[in-house]
Amino acid sequence: MEFTASTGWWVATGLLVALELASGTFYLLMLALGAAAGALAAHLGLLPTAQVAAAALVGGGATALLHWRRRRHPQGAPAAQNRDLHLDIGATVQVSHWNPDGTTRVDHRGTQWNARLEHGQTGQAGPHRISAVEASGLVLVPLHPAA
User: Fold this and answer.
1) Which listed CATH number (3.40.50.720, 2.40.50.140, 2.130.10.10, 2.60.120.10) goes with 79-142?
2) For residues 56 and 58, what is the distance between their CA atoms, to the nearest angstrom?
3) Does position 32 have pLDDT exceeding 90, yes or no?
4) To 10 degrees, what angle do helices 5-23 and 48-72 make?
5) Average pLDDT of 133-138?
6) In which band, very low, low, confident or very high, does the pLDDT at 28 lie, cut at 50, 70 and 90?
7) What is the DSSP track for the chain?
8) Pairing of strands 103-108, 137-142
9) pLDDT digits (tens, 9 = 90+) for 106-133
């Protein structure tokens, strides 16, 4: 069996896809597209220089396009503040008092939760909104901040 240029490109494509599956970075998949373009260029009988150019243009272009798209459409909220992950975010709880260390216990969904104030907020009794969930505790903001 003869090892042709197109075979080398297809092997490179497979390796890049395998690395992408192992690492989870989508950029390697874009480079695999470039290697596939190099393989197609080899099947068309283009010179090695043209094969590399095709691989670079497609792989680099796909990577640049992915990078541009990710910058224009940023990721969602961090996990601790993501309402898709924590259905408690946005719920209202009643705080009766704050401990000197800035923590409290609140009733929420039929059980007691540890809670703390979001940074920059002042502790006062009354209704609070859950703004984040950290480990087994809630992060709260007052519904009606003190004036």
Assistant:
1) 2.40.50.140
2) 6
3) yes
4) 20
5) 85
6) very high
7) ----HHHHHHHHHHHHHHHHHHH--THHHHHHHHHHHHHHHHHTT--HHHHHHHHHHHHHHHHHHHHHHHHHS---S-GGG-TTT-TTTT-EEEE----TTSEEEEEETTEEEEEEEPTT----SEEEEEEEEETTEEEEEESS---
8) unpaired
9) 998 888 999 998 887 777 889 999 988 8
Residue 52 tokens read as 């590399």
Model-level pTM?
0.53
CB 125 within 8 A of CB 97: yes
